[in-house]
Amino acid sequence: MAFPIRSLDEISASVRGAMRQYLPGTDASLKQNVLRVIGKVQALLAHEYELRLKWIFRQLFLSTATSEAIIRLHCAEYRILQKPASAAAGHVTGAGQANVTYPAGVRFVSAGVTYVTTAAFTANAVGGFTANVQAESAGAATNRDASAELLLADPALYPTLPETVSVGADGLGGGADIESIEDLRARGLKRKASPPQGGALPDYENWALDVPGVVNAWAKNFAGGFGTIGVWVLFRGRVNGIPEPADLAAVDAYIGSLRLVRARYFTMAPVAKPVDLTISLSPDTAAMRSAVTEALNNFFDATREGTRLRPGLPDDPFTLPRAWLSEEISTVPGETSHVLIEPAAAPVFQPGELPVLGTITWS
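Now predict its structure.
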């Protein structure tokens, strides 16, 4: 439903008509007439009021609101708050002095981000140790891949610790930037469309989406056998949105703190399955190839709002229609025609498999 506003010409005609009705013998249509000037001023004022009313009308609904503050208020009514930035956490390994216990608060640094040990840790008989660390700042930039190296920030305080330590196999994950206002709006709309049901599949999806960094989630029964529920999630800032083990641990911990039902559940990362394309393009120029590649990259980004992609789920494989691919290519400005040679048939993705863009061959 829209809130229509009148044009200036329509309002002016209405004002002039009102003057003729309520001021007999006058005509505000005549030039060099003070009533004509007054009518124009009144029309401008009325137009401003109608614009304001239209803005107010849009703020009444979460789907059309433009004010960030009002979007936050709409979502807060359902206890959905904008997710703050979060810090990455995980563990690091290294070699120190045998059988020595080091305190919490040891700092390491990587690319300007400092990490601090959250608990005391003890080196084993040969000096090896594993220490839990957390970033002292927040944001997606605090995440680190497995085997990344961190530098000891205060070597003079801990002379028996190595100058560098390695990030554990699970990486440092869970770091995320503050949630965008559009992601917040999407969560609010999803909550309105699927209210809590005491542990139904949409509840698991909404719980997962509450975790900073999670941008998409799909829940399905029988993920690991009878009485189990699987939740596949995508994280912003990860390659193809596929989370690291540390990201999954953050989602596991959050869902475990909320769920009331006792079904066994698993938080899982989709497995990327490339879709290779062979395209005959017209006009076949370097610029057109670049534009089509950019459009396809955007299409295969399953973390974007409004994506039609999802992983395959138990008893519900995902079929990627060839028509979607052709549609995406056809929308590129300047494209005249094309033939999608490969894939010859619609690709089917089994449980856990997420379609990602593979190699594009130009025919």
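Residues 17 and 23 are 10 Å apart (CA to CA).
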